[in-house]
Amino acid sequence: MSEQTERLKAAAVQAVEDHREELIELCSRLLQFPSENPPGNSTPISRYLERYLSRAGIETEWHEAGENMWNLISRIGEPGGKTLIYCGHTDVVPAGDRSKWAFDPFSGEVKDGWLHGRGASDMKGGLAGVIFAVSLLKRLKIELPGELVLAIVPDEETGGEHGVPWLLERGLVKGDGCLIAEPSSPLNPTLGQKGSCWFKLTVKGKAGHGSLAPVSGVNAIVDAMKAVERIRKVWDLPVQIPEEVKPIIEVSKKYVDENENSVARDIFERISCNIGTIAGGTKSNVVPDTCTVEVDCRLPFGATQDDVLNFVREQLDELNIDYEIEPFGFQSTANYTPPENPICRAVVDNISYVTGDQAYGVMQWASSDARHFRAYGIPVLQYGPAYLPSIHNFNEKVRVEDVVRCAKVYVAAAIDFLCEQES
Fold it and tell me: Can you give the residue ranges of the Peptidase M20 dimerisation domain (predicted)?
């Protein structure tokens, strides 16, 4: 690292600390927008963000991917050098039953060192951080020998059709590296994600009078219960993990053992299976003729959607039931960015720089928008503030200090990547 880069980073990190109240106010304000998806309406929060960025002298492009689904793109720095993308989504999952919240989910309350509200951890804390970081770098007039692109997308929580892939398909964002401010642990950004295979099982039976069951009619719910037991056997399906990803999987197991529940350490090498929804029947005294089950499987390296669906069909064929399987929703294979890639080095090194502790990247057992960037040849990782137990839960929150820490990493990593790291 050159002395000039060191000075720029130190000044930027100190500026985040000096303006921390502005950052927390921004995050609090974002939490007050009920940008639940569904239904999905990013117009109000997008208008606010455009005004915020314009005060720093940053112009914003608006791209409507669907009704009230706005993608915002802003740029600072000098075109012609490397390009770094900072990405975040404005949508949040629905707040659900308000009576189960200890506070208003859209209050944005700051209390006892915490920011409270739906999306605090997923991911308005991180979104505020990247927006603040880009704004601050612009205001500090730091001359970046490259371009920092801010991509704010409206649609991630329902699959992202109108967000990241929409931008990439149209060539509206391109880059040599990308950071998504999705939630992570403080010292461990996620360098890779498992794949996903969602499918809907429809079991068909034959209606009849409930008083004659089980001698009359064919109960679709009962047959679906048998099918579910067979589907869950996918957990035991052997998977051959490729040699090149075994090191990062071992590091991820170490992380789980030290920081999470160790029962999850096998998840990186197995196909997980969640029976998410089940619906069937019309009345208790009618033999149900239809039952549908929605299943979410996550795929390790070495497993594909065909592996899962072929196994499930083999299992169900043995039951002699009438069924159909239809894939839907998330479909992807496991993907990752190597730890030695410049974007990974820039972020990991600067987590250590800001915290003084050793940082390292790990695998994530879920899926994310990162897969879309990798599909377009853009190396990517995820790092953002989070109180992990509260994500998609009632009483979601995030620590103020975590939001500030991540913003410091964002400004330092941008300077490092664009000034020092080679593409």
Answer: 192-323
Yes or no: say if 415 and 12 are a contact pair by the CB < 8 Å rule: yes
Q: Which helix (H) or strand (E) holds 164?
A: helix 164-169
250's tokens: 């071992």
| E strand or H helix that includes residue 408 | helix 400-419
Q: Are 363 and 336 in contact (CB under 8 A)?
A: yes
Rounded Cα distance between 78 and 204, Å, is 61
Going along the chain from its start, the domains and CATH numbers come out as: 3-193+334-419 (3.40.630.10), 195-253+262-332 (3.30.70.360)
Average pLDDT over residues 194-212: 97
Q: What is the pTM of this model?
A: 0.91
Q: Which two tokens mark 49? A: 């963000």
Question: Which residues contact residue 157 at a Cβ distance below 8 angstroms, ignoring those fewer than 6 apart?
Answer: 37, 89, 91, 92, 93
Residue 141 CB-density burial (10 A; 0-12 exposed, 13-18 middle, 19+ buried):
exposed
| Cα–Cα nearest to 397, from 164, 191, 110 | 110
How many whole angstroms separate alpha carbon 307 and alpha carbon 418?
41
